[in-house]
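hiii, so i know i said id send this last week but things got crazy w the move. better late than never?? heres the sequnce for the chain we talked about at the cafe, plus the structure i predicted for it. fair warning i was half asleep when i ran it
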Amino acid sequence: MYDILTEQLKHYTVLWRETSALYEEWAKKRGLSYYELLVILSIMEPDGPCLQKDICTHWQLPKQTVNTILKNFAGRAWITLVPSEEDRRGRVILLTDAGRLFMEATASDLQAHERSVWQKMGQENASALLESTALYNKLFKETDSNETA
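okay and structure toks below
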């Protein structure tokens, strides 16, 4: 028996995995892992200090994974870690000059690539993607809350 919902779920899962794989491949071409790319994006994003715990929360990454990446970045002389004044257990991530150059270039290259894709999609498709994704996420949360309540 053909079940359209099952087929749509399979197709969505394939697309979701493909999107992740595209970003992973993009990062790999630049000598980075997918998770390293996510950490770079987090470091380059905030207006204020970036903490390890912020990265973990933002991307739902294990603390140990982020810690390993940050140690790797420190070993490459891209960052230094200093204790946070607000929470001595937390560490603020500070970019070195070399780290700023590399991470700014990486984030800028990714943003340019993404902007090109979104422009090619056109405003109507871009808006539809955003609206559909927001609706999916909203309903996923609501359905999960209803089932666990």
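btw The mean pLDDT is 92. thought thatd interest u
miss u guys!!
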